[in-house]
Amino acid sequence: MKMQRGPTAVELSDVAVKFGSFTAVRNVNLSVDDGEFVAVVGPTGCGKSTILNLVTGLLPAAAGEVRVFGQKLSGLNGDAGYMLQQEALLPWKTALDNVGLGLVFRGASMEEARRQARPWMAKVGLKGFEERYIHQLSGGQRKRVAMAQTLIMSPKIVLMDEPFSALDVHTRRLMHRILLDLWQEEKRSLIFITHDLEEAIALADRVVILSAGPAATVVGEVQITLPRPRNVSALATTDEFLRLYRELWSLLGAEVEKSYRNQDVNIPAKEDNHKEHAHETQA
Amino acid sequence: MKRKHKVALTQLVLLVVTVGGWQLGAQRGWIDPFFFPSPASIIERLGEWFSSPQIWTDLGVTLLETTLSFVFGIGGGIVLGLWLGLSAYAAAVLNPFLKVFNAIPRVLLAPIYVLWFGLGLASKVALGLTLVFFVAFFNTLQGVREVNPVVLANARLLKASKWALLKHVYLPSAASWITSSLRVSVGLAVMGAVVAEYLGSSMGLGHMIAQAEGVMDATGVFAGLVLLSAFVVALDALVDRLEKHLLVWRPQQQNDEEVALATH
After folding, report:
1. Does A62 share its domain with A192?
2. Does the CB of B151 have a partner CB in chain A at under 8 Å?
3. Domain assignment present for A204
4. Contacting B residues, span 65-104, partner chain A, CB-CB under 8 Å
5. How many Å lie between the alpha carbon of A37 and the closest alpha carbon of chain B?
6. Of A198, A186, A199, A191, whose CA–CA distance to A152 is shortest?
7. Measuring CA to CA, which residue among B70, B201, B78 is closest to residue B130?
8. Of A161, A165, A228, A227, which Cα lies nearest the Cα of A198?
9. Longest CA pairwise span in chain A (Å)
10. Based on the domain organization, do A75 and A207 belong to the same domain?
11. Which residues of chain A from 100 to 119 reach within 8 Å of chain B, CB to CB?
């Protein structure tokens, strides 16, 4: 059922990560094709970010191996661009200069970086905001600057760690639309970490589910068959969407409960927990 | 707007009442003009000073000493602050020594500096520099240590070299701390220069005050103090401009007026 897009961009085989005697993830097998959009979901504290750190090369694998375009990864991954969850822009630079920051680090002159950054400001819908400082931008605008900052470097692999989790629902939908437009325009491999199933379904080609930590591992994956280009806001009420949601939740729900139990939270019945997630009631 | 006018009016009233009362008291003999010379006589003395060109030499000398102490003190403080901020090893080694050195009441170094560097410019600059240095140093150190780790991680992920990190991340972060402390530094630079002049020199504002004091001339001392505070206020205004220019990226202070009132 998996679509063939080209060579494998990222391949984790039987990877484990340990911090001292603590095993964060184990036996992780994950491959991402060139140009594929993969979302990774899992309960909190299951080591989702650990997987991104493995792919960037920030974190060495204790077992197994990480391959990037067929090459075993050693040191930092030069093909990856990483968009962090938290605010990471330089407050003393304008939006435009923040977008061009990576180019300057790569050796471009200030003028050259600005020249290249300008069209990116327009791409993320921030034309006219070039000279604003970060504190003069809203949360959503900051995320768009961060997105442009990551994508302007044309990384072959884009890694995103819950990039929109701090935004309100409407702004998040807008971000989804912008992200999908940019991705559609120039398909790169994208690994997107999230805890939000709707977000995962709306964006990804494939959703991978991690088990509850510690020693988390991949417990399943669901191919997202929704056609592209997708209309993010209309999607959430379609039957296909709800079917995928149920399928994913059947895999994830048990893991979420496990993680609650690990944290000594008392959940009386499975059904209550289930209802917290909105779309079931609309079905 | 209305509040602003009200504040200005109250300030004016306060000034008129204080100075007017003082003047009246001195004239009526309620207060002894030997110790508290009347405002009119102070103004008269200032007029006398400014009718001779010598005053400009004195002001110029103090300004030069202040500027040199300021520039070298800040420069040295930034360099050492960056070094200790970025090298945990150097910081661990030098920390106790800096603490001891910082504990010395630095104004008391003035006599030593006069012994070492003589009565000229060098001893004044040395004292001002010592005073400014520690403020700049501690602020730079703080600025470097307070760099947001997420911002730093992001810059590293964008493959910033060590030099680029210093230029684009560490220095600007420290700069906001340093600029915030500039006003204190200017005050300290002036203080270093004037105190050193007061203790031994042949020129400068401190020298004028020392001379007046030497002949029990309270009017001269007061006139010197008035001149000195005008001098600092003028420098302060310059620093204000510099700060506004350097920190354009920072959110505006919500209550500029109150901040200005608190610091002046």
Report:
1. yes
2. yes
3. yes
4. none
5. 21
6. A186
7. B70
8. A165
9. 61
10. yes
11. 101-102, 104-106
B161 in contact with A at a CB cutoff of 8 Å? Answer: yes
Domain range spanning residue A201? Answer: 8-79+155-231
The model scores a pTM over 0.80: no
Ordered per-residue pLDDT tens for chain B, 264 residues: 688 899 999 999 999 999 999 999 988 888 888 888 889 999 999 999 999 898 999 999 999 999 999 999 999 999 999 999 888 899 999 989 988 988 888 888 888 998 899 888 999 999 999 999 999 999 999 889 888 888 888 898 888 888 899 999 998 888 888 888 888 899 899 999 999 999 888 888 899 999 888 888 899 999 999 999 999 999 989 888 888 888 888 876 544 444 444 444
A116 found inside a domain: yes
Tell me if B66 sits within 8 A of B189, measured CB to CB: yes
Q: Where are chain B's structural domains?
A: 52-263
In chain A, the number of structural domains is 2
Chain B contact present for A50, CB below 8 A = no
Whether residues A170 and A34 fall in one domain: yes
Residues 131-160 in A contacting B (C-alpha not used; CB under 8 Å): 133-135, 149, 153
State whether residue B244 sits within 8 Å of chain A by CB: no
Asked whether the beta carbons of A199 and A169 are under 8 A apart, the reply is no
Instruction: Determine which helix (DSSP H) or strand (DSSP E) holds A41, and give its type and residue range.
Output: strand A37-41
Domain B52-263 architecture: Orthogonal Bundle (1.10)
Q: Is residue A63 part of a domain?
A: yes
A38 and A72 inside one domain = yes
Residues A96 and A149 both lie in one domain: yes
Q: Which residues, in sequence order, are bridge partners of residue A92?
A: none
CATH number for the domain spanning A17: value is 3.40.50.300
If one counts every other C-beta atom within 10 angstroms of the C-beta of residue A56, the result is 19
**Which of B150, B161, B249 is opposite residue A133, by nearest beta carbon?**
B249
Beta bridge partners of B82: none
CA B116 to each of CA A72, A185, B5, B121, B197: distance values in angstroms, whole numbers, following the listed order: 65, 72, 53, 12, 15
A91 touches chain B (CB under 8 A): yes
Q: Does some domain include residue A281?
A: no
CA B88 to chain centre: 30
Residue type, A100: G
Phi, psi of B180 (to 5 degrees): -65, -25
Please report the ipTM that was assigned to this predicted complex: 0.77
* Cα–Cα nearest to A248, from A221, A272, A210: A221
Residues A110, A222: one domain?
Answer: no
Q: Return the SS3 of B47.
A: helix
> How far is it, in rounded angstroms, from Cα A61 to Cα B67?
56
